[in-house]
Design a protein that fits this description.
It comes from Modestobacter versicolor. By secondary structure, the protein is of the alpha+beta class. It has one domain: Chemotaxis protein chec (3-Layer(aba) Sandwich). Helices cover about 35% and strands about 25% of the residues. Strand 5 and strand 6 form a beta hairpin. Helix 2 runs antiparallel to helix 3 and helix 2 packs across helix 4. It is globular, with a radius of gyration of 15 Å.
Length: about 160
């Protein structure tokens, strides 16, 4: 019997390549500060086939808005209004959901336990206690992501192992 390895922590290059391929735009990725739940981020939760949490993606509201805009080709002005109000509209969240769903591919590889998107918590929405605890874990990468034509925001990817 072969053992299955846990999900992979992506590199900054993995993140940039995935986003550039998805948006068809230049994306700059550099080291950043950790996104905490105090920032009221969007939180994507990934699970393996046993429904065990494998990873989290935390996006501050600015980056979540820019992802929605870049994917759905939305005008920047409406996204800035949503950021100022501290709440993304349902159509923004649908686009963010698609981005973080595709981002699950970064956690998978040959011999790895398959991870898939389980849930997306909107910016500011309460998250379950186990997810809140995991958000502060140390197996992580913290990035500043700048999407050409929109702007930059913060992204943290946290692994459950």
């Amino acid at each position: 019997m072969t053992s299955v390895l846990p999900a992979l922590l992506p590199t900054a290059k993995d993140v940039r390549d995935m986003l550039e391929g998805l948006f068809g735009k230049d994306v700059t990725v550099s080291p950043g500060d950790p996104v905490s739940l105090n920032d009221k981020p969007a939180v994507a939760v990934y699970v393996d086939p046993t429904m065990a949490t494998t990873a989290l993606c935390l996006l501050d509201i600015r980056l979540a808005a820019w992802f929605a805009g870049a994917l759905a080709l939305l005008p920047k002005g409406g996204l800035e209004d949503a950021i100022d109000e501290g709440e993304l509209y349902p159509m923004h969240l649908e686009a963010v959901y698609e981005v973080v769903n595709i981002a699950a591919s970064m956690f998978n590889g040959e011999g790895r336990n398959h991870s898939k998107l389980h849930a997306l918590h909107a910016p500011g929405e309460a998250v379950p206690g186990d997810i809140a605890g995991l958000a502060a874990a140390f197996n992580r990468i913290d990035l500043v992501v700048d999407v050409d034509g929109y702007g930059k925001g913060n992204l943290s990817i946290v692994m459950a192992h």
